[in-house]
Amino acid sequence: MSDSERRQRRNPAPIILGVVGVILVVYYVIVSLTGVLNTNTDVLVRGGNEASSSDYLTLRMSTQEIDLTNRVVKANVIPIPHGDLVGEKAGEISRNLRIEVSSAGITTSVVTFPGESIVDPTSLTLSLQRGDSAYPFDTPYADFQLSVQDDETGRAVPFVIELTNSARPWVLTADRGDEMTEGSRTLVPVTIDGSRDLLSITLVSFYVLAILLTTLMAVVIIGSAILRRKLEFSNVIWLSATLLSFPALRGSMPGAPPIGTAMDFIVLFPCLVLIAGMLLWTGIYMLWRESSVLRRRTLEQEEAAGAAAVGAASASVGDD
Questions:
Q1: Which residues pair with 181 in a beta bridge?
Q2: Distance of alpha carbon 157 from its chain centroid, rounded?
Q3: 318: which residues sit within 8 A by CB, 6+ positions away?
Q4: Contact by Cβ (8 Å): 204, 253
Q5: Residue 33 near residue 39, CB atoms below 8 Å
Q6: For 266-296, what is each residue's pLDDT tens digit?
C-alpha cells in the first residue's frame, strides 16, 4: 500500500463512537419508559376490590420477602379505618376487630385490635404453592383467605386490599375472589402471583450463555490440542480454573436458589461433567507423558556426552 493510499484511509473511530452513543441513548429511553427500575411499588389487585358501605377497612399489605427455599412470603399488614370505624383520636379504631389470615388450609395469623386502640403494622407469613424449580422463570404464587369481623357482634366488616411490593426482584399481581361463608366467618380468597423481573432473567440468561460458550471453547481447544499432539500444562490450568469458576458464577446469579433447579440439570451439571472429564483425561495423559523419564531403568546420556565433547573441543582449541 502506497503512502497516498494510507493518507486517504478514513478513521472509523468517530463512526463507532457515534453508533455507541446512539445505542446508549436508545437504551436509556427504553429503561425510563418501560419502568424496569421498578420505581412504583403498587400492585394492582384485580377482582371486586371495592367496599360495599362507607364503614370499611383498608388492609394495606406490603410484601417484604419472597423466600423460595422455605416457600413462604413475608409481609406486613396495617388496617386503616374509614367511616364509623375511625376512633376519636388519630390512628385509633372505634370497634373491636378481629383479622384472620388462612394460608395452606390453616389459620396462620390472628390479629385482634381492641376498640380505641392504636393500630400498628403486623407481620404475616404466607405459604407458597410453588418453589424455585424453574429458576429463573419460576412463578410462585400464594393462595390465602382474609376474614375481618367485629369481635363483639361477630358480623363481617367490609374491607378493600391495597398491596405494595418491596420484595425484589419480583413482579407481583393479585386477584381477589368472591366472598364465601364458612360458619360465622365471611372469607375472601386472595391470590398473589409472582415472577422475576426482566432484568434478572436477562442477567441469568447471560451467565448461562457464558457457561455454555466457555464449555464449547474448552471442547474445541482441548480437542484441537489432542489432534495436533500439543497438549500443554497451561491446558490443565485453564480447565481447572474453569471447573472452579462455574459454581461461583452460578452462585452470583441474581436470586440464585440452592443447587437442584431445572437450570442445573439442563446447563450446569452437563457442562461441569464435560469440563471435569477433559480435565481428568488431560491430567492423566500429561502425568503419564511427563513421568516417562522417571519410569525408565536407564537414562539416555547422548546429550551429556555431546556436551562433554563440545567442551573438550573448545578446550583443545584454546590450548592451540
A1: 186
A2: 40
A3: none
A4: yes
A5: no
A6: 999 999 999 999 999 988 888 888 887 787 7
